[in-house]
Design a protein that fits this description.
The chain has helices at 4-11, 21-29, 47-58, 71-74, 97-109, 126-138, 167-171, 200-213, 219-231, 236-246, 252-255, 261-274, and strands at 36-42, 63-68, 84-85, 91-92, 114-119, 140-143, 146-149, 155-160, 174-178. By secondary structure, the chain is of the alpha/beta class. The chain has 2 domains: 4-178, Rossmann fold (3-Layer(aba) Sandwich), CATH 3.40.50; 190-274. A 5-stranded parallel beta sheet has the order 2-5-8-1-9, with helices on both faces. The longest helix is centred in the last third of the chain and has 14 residues, at 200-213. The chain is elongated. The termini are far apart.
Length: 284
């Protein structure tokens, strides 16, 4: 059975056999005096971003703020607002998008639960890592002549980077590893897909294929595969196309290799038996 968090994250686009409820509970139950923060680690790619957004929405916090440090490059062509001047004619630099997001997160956290996602931190200047570290420790964000305080009770931060974070920053966060694909194997039964027991031999044969490929289909992936198995798959090549088409993280070279042929052939035989098709042996 899926946990409530796991199901909610699936509803928001992050489906995985891996359940992160325990890790979240460890962080929330800690007595760390500063801002609670998650260091989202994993292989390069945007799956970590999908995880962070799904987790934030699954928690149903009223406020969600997101900043991507790679946006700085995209913003180079934007119109720049000239610095403002005070009553003495002294100019003040415009507030950066990053400082603006941080300020809003601080302000909203004073009254309501708030999630702040800082993405692609590998593109941030090292000084920003230090500022974030100091913020997590002190709960205060400062820029120009402004200083704002965040509520350590209401604010949760998720930090995403394709490279290791600044050491001190790592030490004040809770690390969660997000796999490129689901790593937890699940023992599915036909009833999990509202199917009859007659399809069990096919599922057992598919389990051997998944084990060889070192992949674990999620419920929705497996449901699509089983639909193809019942109505579309007639050959080993078609089976390969369905497996590759519906599942994340499959090694395509291994899938189409001779090494996997006996296991794929076994699945096809089970499919033929399921449909009542007898194997025809042609004697030479």
């Amino acid at each position: 059975m899926s946990s409530t968090l796991q199901q909610k994250m699936s509803d928001y686009g992050f489906e995985s056999n891996d359940d992160y409820e325990y890790q979240l509970r460890c962080l929330m139950d800690s007595h760390y005096p500063g801002i609670k923060a998650i260091n989202v680690e994993g292989h390069k790619g945007r799956r970590k971003t999908a995880f962070a957004n799904a987790l934030a929405r699954a928690l149903e916090y009223p406020n969600l703020f997101y900043y991507d440090f790679t946006q700085k490059a995209e913003a180079e062509g934007k119109v720049i607002i000239p610095p403002s001047e005070d009553e003495h004619g002294i100019s003040e630099p415009p507030v950066s998008d990053f400082d603006h997001i941080m300020s809003e997160a601080c302000a909203f956290s004073e009254g309501e639960d708030t999630v702040l996602i800082l993405d692609q931190l590998q593109a941030a200047d090292f000084k920003e890592h230090i500022r974030i570290y100091q913020f997590i420790k002190s709960c205060e964000w400062s820029y120009a002549n402004n200083s704002l305080r965040a509520s350590p009770k209401n604010l949760l931060m998720l930090l995403i980077s394709d490279e290791p974070l600044y050491h001190s920053l790592q030490k004040c966060t809770f690390r969660i590893w997000v796999n490129a694909v689901s790593s937890t194997q699940k023992s599915y039964a036909p009833s999990d897909f509202d199917l009859q027991e007659a399809i069990l031999p096919i599922m057992e044969a598919l389990a051997e294929v998944f084990n060889k490929l070192e992949v674990a289909p999620t419920h929705s992936e497996y449901a699509k595969i089983l639909h193809d198995v019942q109505f579309n798959v007639h050959t080993e090549q078609q089976l390969c196309h369905s497996l590759y088409g519906w599942m994340e993280g499959i090694n395509r070279e291994l899938l189409f290799s001779r090494q996997l042929q006996p296991l794929l052939n076994n699945v096809i035989q089970k499919i033929q038996q399921f449909h009542g098709v007898d194997e025809v042996i042609i004697e030479s």
